[in-house]
Amino acid sequence: MPIADYADSPQFAGGRFRNTHPRPANSPAPDARTLWNFFFNKPPDTEPGQALPVLPLNAAALEAAPERSLYRLGHSTLLMKLRGGWWLTDPVFSERASPLPFAGPKRFHAPPIALDELPPLRGVLLSHDHYDHLDRATIRALAPKVGIFLCTLGVGDRLAAWGVPADRIVQHDWWQGSEVDGLRFTATPAQHFSGRGLRDGNRTLWASWVIEDLQGERPLRVFFSGDGGYFDGFAEIGRRFGPFDLTLMETGAYDPHWPYVHMHPAQTIQAHQDLGGRWLLPIHNGTFNLAMHAWWDPFEQILGLGRQHGIAIATPMMGERLDLDAPHAGTPWWRACVQAGNATQPMRHAQS
């Protein structure tokens, strides 16, 4: 199915979407050696030496879950109960984040709950179309039990091509949103890119999302970063929608060669501050090998930086419940895995 014409979008020009700020001409970029090392010569500590622990979930546990429960299922997939309905972000349940079933980044852990045990979903929220955020097999399995898919321009066309009924798809440009059951979902800017093949780069839009429940006794504002580099858009989102009770922030897959599209942990902290966040839950880590850093490095760095800046950091285990009204810090559960794997590199608690 051809990608639709989005000529009215300020982000669309020449048949492709673009960021607010062009990539700086002098910004670092991967060279041939970097790409070779990324695909064929990664350090051993980019993956754990054993499957990571998860807290199993099942349909009965979710049925009994209180309102405003959040469960991290892996990478950027989060399950939230809001106004009695279940919402899922960037669902990826496949074994690999890849177009190929036999190659590409493989999961460090199984999802805490099987796809067929998930309850009916009021909605799915999609940030962009990369394989570690938009999984065709998962979408097709979930489609019969999802009330609405909220996504960015062009991503909805992909869903329709995969068989999702068009009347369950709502596509948004930046700063556009939908109200569902008293909740407000607004697509907000991000600095990233899109594409699933060699010829479709930036044919679909990417975004972060603001999630608001302002009709209850206790207002709730949650920010979901999706993917992206650090830019002044975080401050603008904070001015328009902040402060936020919880930010779900990309903290992983960073590298000196691609700061424009993925934040380093110190930038994640700055973005959280720009947004006026109270609690920060680091996502985009702990599930797939997508960079050259140690798999546990995002957790250690964000904890150390949070301590330095007086920021409350939540690091729940995969499958552990987090109360959106009263988050808790969790435990450094990954450290036992590092010790069991006999990591050769010492853990760092912060990086400037």
Structural class determined from secondary elements: alpha/beta
Largest β sheet strand count, sense and barrel closure: 7 strands, mixed
The number of helices is 8
Strand content: 15-25%
Beta-strand segment tally: 16
Determine the fraction of residues in helical runs and give it as a percent range: 10-25%
Globally, the shape reads: globular
Extract low-pLDDT stretches: 343-352
Trace the largest sheet across and list its strands: 8-7-6-5-4-3-16
Instruction: Give Rg in angstroms.
Output: 19 Å
Distance between the termini: 46 Å
Q: Output mean pLDDT.
A: 93
- What is the H/E string? EEHHEEEEHEHEEEEEHEHEHEEH
Describe the structure.
- This protein is an alpha/beta fold and 352 residues long.
- Helices cover 19% and strands 22% of the residues.
- Strands 8-7-6-5-4-3-16 form a 7-stranded mixed β-sheet, with helices on one face.
- Helix 5 runs parallel beside helix 6 and helix 6 packs across helix 7.
- The termini are far apart.
- The C terminus is likely disordered.
Protein traits:
seven-stranded mixed sheet; globular; 22% strand; disordered C terminus; 8 helices; single chain; alpha/beta; 352 residues
What is shown here, in short?
The chain is α/β, with parallel strands linked by helices and 352 residues long. Helices cover 19% and strands 22% of the residues.
Write the layout of secondary structure elements.
Layout: E1 12-13, E2 16-17, H1 32-40, H2 59-63, E3 69-74, E4 77-82, E5 85-89, E6 121-125, H3 136-142, E7 146-152, H4 155-161, E8 169-172, E9 177-180, E10 183-188, E11 208-213, E12 220-224, H5 233-241, E13 244-250, H6 265-275, E14 277-283, H7 297-309, E15 312-313, E16 321-323, H8 334-340
Parallel strand pairs: 5-6, 6-7, 7-8, 12-13, 13-14, 14-15
Antiparallel strand pairs: 1-2, 3-4, 3-16, 4-5, 9-10, 10-11, 11-12
Helix pairs in contact: 5-6, 6-7
